[in-house]
Every structure is written in structure tokens, then in C-alpha cells.
Amino acid sequence: MLRFLSFATLSQLAIIASQLVLLPLQIHVWGHDIVALWLSTLALTGILNVSDLGLRNAGFAALAANAPPERFSTLWTIMRGHMGLATLAVLAVVAAWLAPRAGAEGSLFLFVLALAATAEVFLGLRVTFMEAKGLIAPAEALFFAMAASRVVIAGVLIAFFNAGPLLVSIVWLLSAVCAVCAQSFFRFVRETSPAFGNWKLEDVAAAYRDAAWSAATPLVQWAQLQAPVIALSVFAAPALVSSFVAIRALFGTMRSILQHVSRLASIKFGDWAREKGESRAQALLLLVGAFAAWIALGFGLALFAENFTITGKLFDLPPDDSVRMIAFAVTFSTVLSVHSLFTLALARFGRFALTGIANYAYVTVVVVACLVAAMSGSILVLLAGLVIADAGLLLLVVGLTTRRDGEPVLQHARVTFFVAVASCLVVATVCWKIFLGPDVHEDFWSLAVSEAAALVIWLSIGAALWLRTGPTVRGLLASAPPANTG
To answer: Are 17 and 153 in contact, with CB atoms under 8 Å apart?
Structure first.
């Protein structure tokens, strides 16, 4: 698990670097118009992550439970068929919508980028299945190699050779294809990736029954990351589209880390439930969520105190109120994004109906907010909708995950969790007023004082949180008899 966490963290840092390092370079060399087309294509191809209809969770469960090979083979065949159809649909939309905006000579990179996204999704599906069979470190190492190679090679090409989007998109495609080919060296991948599965019709029907709910899980990720970009592409200027992604890359970095660590927590949740009982595992999950929100707050405070001046210069962002609103909304949502801990825990246990109810509600709110924002041309409507969706999903999944009220420790953990998250949000709002008020200072002393104040506030909240939860955490981690499953 430690190796998994190390590689998972490195993978996320590489992905973050691709946004924090490459995105400024792309804006400087290509300009906002081309970068907006690049980002719009990535947002559009994000729907490929939904093409498996969430059946990756069913495949994970089938492999982890050593189900009959026909079960996984059927699921894998269906997923690949969906990906093929979705890829053709995405290429058609790119040709009809984005290619005319780039011109006949400059549109080729859009199609190469779409194919690269397909290969990356295929890689991600295999990573999930490798983790189910215990190949955690190799799976994450391959993903890290792909992400890191993109940052290094593309960064050098853009910074020193002024490489255009076509060459960089080819790097994107080749890195993903090489990672997929490297996966084929593992015996497990060769054994579970036949050209056509030995599948049965009844297994296909069962798979689509699961997909009715499990499709909501990848759909949430698309709604979080891609739907707002598509909405902005409809009514906003190219500079605002690239500004939104740039700010989200920096201020939403902790969300990406939390989502990746949530995968580890969801796996450990299953171990805790078997070893200590489900209610004790739920209490531990709540306390992990409380500390995750606190960590996210610390990252946000550091960025608030930075006064946004360095960020604006790095990404060539316009100094207007919309940029500040985006930064605040993204950081506010980051604290609320601890809901990924609970949705993944529910999915790992095969509770697709409960997960689907919560996730479909979230997607509905986000899509409605995007549609209203696109029709009204208001970015404020879009940002408010994103925050409301994250808050609503958090309340819903915590209630679904911890429905048992029998144990006092679970009630204590639930209260602690909500108090911790609420205090983080209040402090974030107050610090927003203090550190990002109308008067922005760029001198060293104002920056140092702001950073010191943010650190004191963050450490004080952390100390109070540990004083309240420390004894409970030690008690929950102590040995306990397994849950009575009879």
C-alpha cells in the first residue's frame, strides 16, 4: 500500500505539473485561442471516461472476488465496444464543431489529441483491473511514466523549440500508446484481454443492469472536470476558458490528490469492514474525511495568502473579478470534494444503486447549472452551481454511507466530520476576505505576513481536530474482533 500511495502521489504530481508547467508555456507560445481549442477538445474527449458506463467497478469486483472468467470477459468485451463507438462519436463532433474554428490546416492536432484520449482511457481501465489482482505498484508506475514523460518531452519542445500543438498532441498519443503496450508484458493483462470474450447473453443483461447505476461514477468526473469547460466554450471568450482551466489547475490541485488517495481509502475501507466491523470502518472513513478536508484547507490558505499576483503573471490571466470568483469557487469546492471518499467506498462494496442515486443527483445539478450559464452567459451561475452540487453530494453520500446509528463511536465521528468540514469552509470564506480583498499587495512583507497568518490558522484548526479525534482514532485502529457475518 505504501508503494501504491507513493506512485499514486507521484502520478498526480506529474498530472498537476502538466497543467502548472505546460499550460503557462502553451498560453505564452500558442496564445489563448489555440489553447482554448486544445482544452475544449480535452473536455469533449472526457466523455470517453464514461463510455464504459461504470462497468470498470463491476469488473474490479469480479476480479477481486475470483468470479468465473466468463463474467469479467463479458464485461471487458462490452467496455471495449462502447469505447470504440464513443471514439467515433467524439471524432465526428470534433470535425463538426471544433475543426472549423481551427481552420483546415490547423485542425489535425484536434483529431490526434482525441485519439490520445482514447488510448489514455484504455490505459486507465487496465490500471483498475491490475489493481484488483494486486498489481498496484506496476499499474501506477506505468501511469506515472506516461504522465511524467509528457511533462518532460512536451515541456522541452514548447520551451526551447516553440513546438506547435500538432507535435505536442503526437507526444500525447505516443506516450499513451507506449504505456498501453508496456501493460501487455504482464501475464495477467494477456490472460484477461482476449480479442472477443467467451461471454454469455445472460451475463450481458446482468452487466447492463449494473451499468444503469454504475455509469454515474465516471459521469461525475466528467461533470466535475469537463462540463464547465464545454459550457464556457459556448459563451465565454477564449481567454476566460483558458483562465478557468489554469485557475482550476492551481486552486483545484488538492481535489485531484484527494480523489486519487480516495482510491486507497476505499480499498482500506473494505479491509477495515472485514477486520473491525462495518460501523467502525464507517467511523474511520468519516475521520479520514475530516482530516482530508483540513489538508485541502491548508493548500487553499497557502494560495489565498499568495495574493494571486504570481498566479496571474504566470498564466497571463486578466486582472478582473471573474478570475477571483473562479479561484474562490474552485477552492471552496475542493474542501467539499471529500465526498469522493464515500462514493468510492460504496462502489467498492458493489452498492451501485446507492452510489448511482447520489451521483446522478450531482450530475443533474451540474448539467442544469452549465445549461443555464450557457444560455444566460453568466459565469457566476456556473460557479454557484458547481459549489451547490459538491455540497449536496457530500451531504447525500455521507448519509448513505453511515446510515447505521447503533454505535456511539459512529455518531461521534459523524458529528466531528461535519463540524470539521463546516469550520474549514467558514475559515476559507474569512481568509478569502482577508487575503484576497480589493487591495492586492505584491511586496515581500505582505506576502510573508499573509503566509504566516494562514499557517497559524491552519495549524490551530489541525490541533483542535486532533485533540477531539485522537483518542477515537487510536481506539478504532486497535485490534477488534471481526464483524459477525453469520
So the answer is: no
Q: Cβ(71)–Cβ(198) under 8 Å? A: no
Domain limits, the chain: 1-213, 215-475
Number of neighbouring beta carbons within 10 Å of residue 202:
9
Cβ count within 10 A of residue 476: 18
Which of 139, 322, 303 is closest to 239 using CA atoms? Answer: 322
Mean pLDDT of the chain: 78
CA dist 338 and 336 (Å) reads 5
Nearest CA-CA partner of 363 in 258, 218, 233 = 218
Separation CA 198–CA 194 (nearest Å): 9
* φ/ψ of residue 103, rounded to 5: 90, 160
Q: Are 386 and 333 in contact (CB under 8 A)?
A: yes
Side chain identity at 88, as an amino acid letter?
Answer: L
Cell matching residue 381: 451561475
Q: How confident is the model at residue 407 (pLDDT cuts 50, 70, 90)?
A: low
DSSP string, 323-371: HHHHHHHHHHHHHHTTHHHHHHHHHHTT-HHHHHHHHHHHHHHHHHHHH
Contact 17, 186 (CB under 8 A): no
CA distances in angstroms from 261 to 2, 4, 112, 268, 333, listed in the order given: 11, 10, 31, 11, 17
Taking only the tens place, the pLDDT of each residue in 19-31 is 777 888 898 899 8
For residues 415 and 408, give the distance between their C-alpha atoms in angstroms, rounded to a whole number.
11
Amino acid identity, residue 434?
A: I
At 331-382, the pLDDT tens digits run 788 888 888 878 777 776 667 777 788 888 899 999 999 999 999 988 899 9
Between 221 and 391, residue with greater pLDDT: 391
Strand, helix or coil at 227?
helix
Nearest to 453 by CA among 426, 435, 438: 435
Asked if 51 and 121 count as a contact pair (C-beta separation under 8 A), the reply is: yes
Asked whether 386 and 270 are in contact (CB, 8 A), the reply is no
Contacts of 93 (CB under 8 A, 6+ apart): 44
